[in-house]
């Protein structure tokens, strides 16, 4: 990827994250990324292709970050806790403006674009990762339980986007409840 293309992706990511996809115009992205209009269109012939590029990059970055966190843990419960910790660190970051996938799902109708496929790819990946961790723990109904945990994480993401001042206590109590739920599903505790 060229430096100019990278600049466009980074600028668009920052703007889309803060303001949404439809609220940010191409000219704003061009100005923020400091590239010529022709250069922009060379890399991204349409805004939708740019949004797809931004979401693909976000998908790759989130997967890599979560995997790095999980891989450093030895036990399944520690891996699940690491995912919650990763989310808490993300929520407390200065650049947190909510989930770009949740925002995209609100702005792009189901089945209308490739954007929805990218959103579903990340959510499916996260559910699968958590399901595998739950299976390592010996949890019954790991697939259903993984879906519930992702719903908790998505709910927390929306909550913290609305009110960042409750992060630590909110995360701690939600982790405690999630851990109890997982332990109830583990065979031969």
Automatic annotation (TrEMBL):
Keyword Transcription regulation listed: yes
Domain HTH tetR-type: 2-62
Keyword Mitochondrion: no
Alphabetized GO MF terms: DNA binding
DNA-binding region as annotated in the record: 25-44
Keywords, sorted A to Z: DNA-binding, Transcription, Transcription regulation
Annotated PROSITE patterns: HTH_TETR_2
InterPro entries per the UniProt record, alphabetical: Homeodomain-like_sf, HTH_TetR, Tet_transcr_reg_TetR-rel_C_sf
Protein name: TetR/AcrR family transcriptional regulator
Lineage: Bacteria, Pseudomonadati, Pseudomonadota, Gammaproteobacteria, Cellvibrionales
């Amino acid at each position: 990827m060229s430096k100019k293309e990278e600049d466009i992706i980074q600028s668009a990511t920052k703007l889309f994250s803060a303001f949404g996809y439809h609220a940010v115009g191409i000219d704003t992205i061009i100005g923020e990324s400091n590239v010529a209009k022709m250069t922009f269109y060379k890399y991204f012939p349409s805004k939708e292709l740019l949004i797809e590029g931004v979401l693909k990059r976000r998908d790759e970055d989130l997967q890599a970050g979560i995997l790095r966190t999980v891989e450093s843990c030895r036990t399944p419960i520690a891996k699940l806790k690491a995912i919650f910790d990763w989310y808490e660190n993300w929520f407390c970051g200065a650049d947190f403006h909510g989930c770009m996938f949740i925002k995209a799902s609100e702005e792009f109708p189901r089945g209308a674009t490739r954007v929805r496929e990218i959103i579903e790819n990340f959510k499916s990946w996260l559910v699968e990762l958590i399901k595998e961790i739950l299976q390592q723990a010996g949890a019954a109904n790991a697939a259903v339980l993984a879906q519930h945990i992702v719903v908790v994480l998505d709910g927390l993401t929306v909550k913290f986007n609305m009110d960042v001042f409750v992060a630590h206590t909110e995360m701690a109590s939600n982790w405690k409840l999630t851990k109890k739920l997982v332990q109830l599903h583990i065979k031969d505790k």
